[in-house]
């Protein structure tokens, strides 16, 4: 997490794993240090006008209106929040 966001993880719990033919995606509940996230790692290197990464803190109700990718991420996040 620190590599991708610059944030230190204080607590971590795996809540969902989504596996496709291309890759495996893991979704976690985390507790992080209070700081502004900074993009790093492979995501920072791949970022382009066609493929951008942005940190946004949102309320659960706002997930429906976000262009959240990959496509399954919105559904998975909403399922997790409903538990």
Describe this structure in words.
With about 80 residues, the protein is α+β, with helices and mostly antiparallel strands. It has one domain (about 1-80). It has 3 helices and 2 strands, in the order αββαα. The chain has helices at about 1-5, 40-45, 70-80; strands spanning about 10-20, 25-30. It has a two-stranded antiparallel sheet. It is globular and about 30 Å long. The model has no long low-confidence stretch (mean pLDDT about 85).
Chain-wise SSE layout:
Layout lengths: L1 H4 L3 E11 L4 E9 L8 H6 L24 H12 L1
Antiparallel strand pairs: 1-2
Number of helices: 3
Shape annotation: globular
Order of helices and strands: HEEHH
Strand content: 15-25%
Major beta sheet, strand line-up: 1-2
Largest sheet: 2 strands, antiparallel
Could you write a compact summary of the structure shown?
This protein is α+β, with helices and mostly antiparallel strands and 83 residues long. It has three helices and two strands, in the order αββαα. Strand 1 and strand 2 form a beta hairpin.
